[in-house]
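Protocol step 4 of 5: obtain the predicted structure for the target chain.
Materials: sequence only (see below). No template structures provided, no constraints applied. The aim of this step is simply to have a reference model before the mutagenesis design in step 5. Sequence pasted as it appears in the construct record:
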Amino acid sequence: MKRMLTVLLVMSMSLGAASAAFPQTDVQGEKAKKVTKTVKSKAGAATMMPAPEVQLKRLAEGLQLTVEQQDKIRPLLEDEYARLKVIQENEDLSPKQIQKQVEELRNGTIVKMQAYLTPEQKAKHDLVSNEIKANKQQRMKENRKARIGTKADPPPSVSK
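Step 4 output (structure tokens):
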């Protein structure tokens, strides 16, 4: 009898613990969706990237692209832009997931685009891309400091 009572008690306790855990995951999921909607609503109609024609004009001027190169690169930029819109409109993705997908898409487009560039144009494109990335890192660091405070440098990485 004691054994049966113990088994029932353990089962009821585990059932109670399990039922308490499930609503929390739903709450966490709802919070994540709410954050995603907030971020997207604040972004409004802002786009992640300029229109393909604007990008192509910048590339043509900066890299001195030939008309033939422009004709080959234009479809790549248009495809990338269409895919970016799909990613941006996806309600199920978190901001970090969006960022990851955008980076993967952008890197893929760059690889395809560089197939049409001369070695000199590739070198110049890489130089400008690295400069843009460095500026982005600096802006992110400044934004972090503004949000958290002036002593907001990330902790030093531990070397082994």
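Step 4 remarks: Residues 46-132 form one domain. The CA atoms of residues 56 and 138 lie 26 Å apart.
Proceed to step 5.
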